[in-house]
Amino acid sequence: MSSCRDAQCAGSQWIGALIYVDDLWFCADSVEELNKMITVTQHRDEDHRTKINYGEGKSEIIVFNESSVIKSQRDHTPWIAKVRFPYPHDTVVREVDHFKYVGFTLDSKMEMNKHCNDIIKKIKISTGKVLKYEQIFKKQDKMYYRH
After folding, report:
1. From CA 133, how far away is CA 69, in angstroms rounded?
2. Are the beta carbons of 49 and 55 closer than 8 angstroms?
3. Which helix (H) or strand (E) holds 30?
4. Other C-beta atoms lying within 10 Å of the C-beta of residue 36
5. Alpha-carbon span 20 to 68, nearest angstrom
6. pLDDT (tens digit, 9 = 90+) per residue, 29-42?
7. pTM score, whole prediction
């Protein structure tokens, strides 16, 4: 899309986003660009009488594959939404190392360690439950299986 007339814009760049049900993802190359995207979306929502939930676990920032040098350079740069309603103020959006989206845990290093560990934990819990019930049925001298 070459024109910003029909889309929300941050400067001259069209805001590309991934939208799934009521979730919205932005992809930006800089702190400034993302802050502008958040603010433009905030203003659009205010104009349409809707509200972004900035509560913990609802609106969060994750930076993928960032080097430690770049992270230390921007360490104190906040992610900000410039809110106009009910009064003008800045809202800081939390940065996280990982978050869960549609059952999948994404992490900033894209290593999938947390996701894999969560799955392994669920498998161990489920296996323990199956083994417990297997022992109960064996003690009754019969094994019952349901299809």
Report:
1. 52
2. no
3. none
4. 19
5. 31
6. 778 888 888 888 88
7. 0.62
